[in-house]
Amino acid sequence: MLVLQHAKKSPRSQGRIGLAIAGGGPIGGMYELGALRALDAAIDGLDLTRLEVYVGVSSGAFLAAGLANRLSTEEICRIFITGDSKDISFHPEIFLQPAFGEYLKRTASIPGIFYDWWREMLADPLGAKLTDAIGRFSSVVPTGIFNNDEIEKFLRGIFTMHGRCNDFRKLDRKLYVVAVDLDSGEAVRFGGPKWDDVPISQAIQASAALPGLYSPVDIRGHHFVDGALRRTMHASVVLDHGIDLMIGINPFVPFNASTAKAPPEGMKKLAEGGLPVVLSQTFRTLLQSRMQVGLAKYAQQYPEVDQMVFEPNDDDGEMFFTNVFSFDSRQRVCEHAYQTTLADLRRRSAELAPVLAKHGLKLRDDVLNAGSSSILKGMKKPVRQTETTARLRRALDDIEHSIAANS
């Protein structure tokens, strides 16, 4: 589904485009990659690796940082989907490494807690309460099931090879990664003032630390968790940069079972799916409601900006019922997002054409109307690069881009 908000004012566009990518777990990230790949293929003049500004939240931060580091959607597909990248080896199990260190730390505190509770019991048996005991021992519960240190290590490897950069301050384009400070509840923009010296890989680790699954990430004595706790896309971050066109991608929308074409067999009401389905619907409803309020507000605050937000249709059972950690489903979900995004562009082409033209962009009819289009179609044969050849290719690409911009 494409949410399109036209600019209320029409100043001359400078071609400044910003990208905001929300979170959504690994499968949400694969939906976003499929949507980005579709935009890359179907919009002539759009270079997703050379936008004005990027903001990423949680899983969206992986993609935003990759694009800002000049990793193309094709290269990202090779890393996460086909697995045939010659330079980067991705293993999905890094997302599910048990947090043994956290388990041991919490277990080690049990004797001390038990001793203090037992001493109070002996001192005042009548005053001791079961609720006090439960509260005292709740600190023994680990803050996260999985360890995300390997995720940070994997990203650090990607962003420190072939001329790429793990330093916000040295990027060619502005990048922000948003996380929430657990102790204050405030959103922090890594890449912004006072926080731009934090490595990009660590900022992504913090932004993707979903409470309950991953332990909070300690940065300078602050503990950070998933950036989606405050806002869904943090689109205002890119809108504040004076852009002309904002592209947003949100993989989480509530499911409308009454209009769904193919609900799960035997399920007439979502409540029949049990607690996981109820919680998923609740979470998605909260996220989308918050985003809709934000977009309505942005239309008033930034009347000179065109806004395009891509998200699944509300009857999309493929996205709703696929486990967000089902890595085996990543290619199917990515292809699904690619096809549905192309369908959105095709269906709204007449309305989109003049909007895109303002910003020097044009829909490619040959891609939109290609019956056998696939997310993997047209991908070049992967080539192994040395550090020297990779840097040379980046330099030549910069020269080519500079010549094209000045011609």
In a few lines, what is going on in this structure?
This protein is an alpha/beta fold. Helix content is 43%, strand content 14%.
Would you write up a description of this structure?
This protein has 407 residues and is of the alpha/beta class. Helix content is 43%, strand content 14%. The chain has 15 helices and 14 strands. It has helices at residues 25-42, 59-68, 73-82, 100-108, 110-123, 130-137, 149-158, 200-207, 236-239, 275-301, 317-321, 330-347, 349-358, 365-368, 387-406; strands spanning 2-5, 17-21, 43-44, 53-57, 97-98, 144-147, 174-181, 187-190, 212-214, 217-219, 222-226, 245-249, 306-310, 362-363. The strands form three sheets. Strands 1, 2, 4, 7, 8, 10, 11, 12 and 13 form a nine-stranded mixed sheet that branches. Helix 1 packs parallel to helix 2 and helix 1 packs across helix 12 (330-347). The protein starts with a strand and ends with a helix. 36% of the residues are buried.
Notable characteristics:
407 residues; alpha/beta; 9-stranded mixed beta sheet; 3-stranded mixed beta sheet; 15 helices; globular
Give a topology summary.
Layout lengths: L1 E4 L11 E5 L3 H18 E2 L8 E5 L1 H10 L4 H10 L14 E2 L1 H9 L1 H14 L6 H8 L6 E4 L1 H10 L15 E8 L5 E4 L9 H8 L4 E3 L2 E3 L2 E5 L9 H4 L5 E5 L25 H27 L4 E5 L6 H5 L8 H18 L1 H10 L3 E2 L1 H4 L18 H20 L1
Parallel strand pairs: 2-4, 2-12, 4-7, 6-9, 12-13
Antiparallel strand pairs: 1-13, 3-14, 5-6, 7-8, 7-11, 10-11
